[in-house]
Amino acid sequence: MCKGLASLPSCCLERANVLKARLGSILQKPNWNFSRCKMGQTNPTLEECLRWKQSFEKLLSSKRGLCAFTTFLVSEFSEENIAFYFACEDYRNTKSASKLSDKAQKIYDEFISTDAPREINIDHETRDITKANLLALTPSCFDPAQHKIYMLMAKDCYPRFLRSPAYKDLVQQARQGTKNQEKKV
Q: 130-140 in b/e burial notation, b at 16+ Cβ within 10 A?
């Protein structure tokens, strides 16, 4: 190990190793491929792809849109955002009071804690509010943090997704599929 790396805290080195492993797996798969999503054998239609462009909500409400967006987030090393968002949705819909505590702790440990393996990007104030909310569990404990992450995705990740080669390739494939269907008729 070089002298520069030896002076870094071990947590930084561990994080670098995780990122190196993730990057290596992406580099072995050079082309973004929608088929990695487990949504069946059919690609989205042109109409479906264009609907995703209408709003972030429409993208998230589509199974294929969510899959494509998640794959895009993985390629940008920010899939923790969508994972956190849906973990909060699952938590909010939990009916059993006994399960709330376990789920809340799991979400906090995985996404909110400063040493969380999939730490989300929220400010200290929101982190502190969320931590305080965990003292008196309610279905809305994570709402402030979830809202921050939703807005981050809606205002930053979503527009980048729409400009990405991944989205453009899906639209192009859907257009080609539409043309091929018209030729058969």
A: beebbeeeeee
Q: How far apart are CA 50 and CA 44, in angstroms?
A: 10
What pTM value is reported for the model? 0.75
pLDDT at 2 over 90: no
Task: Give the Cβ contact number of residue 46 at 10 Å.
Answer: 18
Contact 121, 127 (CB under 8 A): no
CA distance between the termini of the chain:
64
- What DSSP state is assigned to residue 156? I
At residue 26, the pLDDT reads: 38
For domain 45-183, the CATH architecture is Orthogonal Bundle (1.10)
Instruction: Give CA–CA dist 1/5, Å, rounded.
Output: 6
Task: Say which residues have a Cβ less than 8 Å from residue 28's Cβ, sequence separation at least 6.
Answer: none
Give Cβ neighbours of residue 123 (< 8 Å, ≥ 6 apart). 148
Residue 172 makes CB contacts below 8 A (sequence gap 6+) with none
Length of the chain in terms of residues written: 185
Residue 49 contacts residue 34 (beta carbons within 8 Å): no
Burial status of residue 170 (CB atoms within 10 A of its CB: 0-12, 13-18, 19 or more): buried
Would you state the structure tokens that stand for residue 151, as one six-digit string? Answer: 């807005």
Structure token digits, residue 112: 């909110």
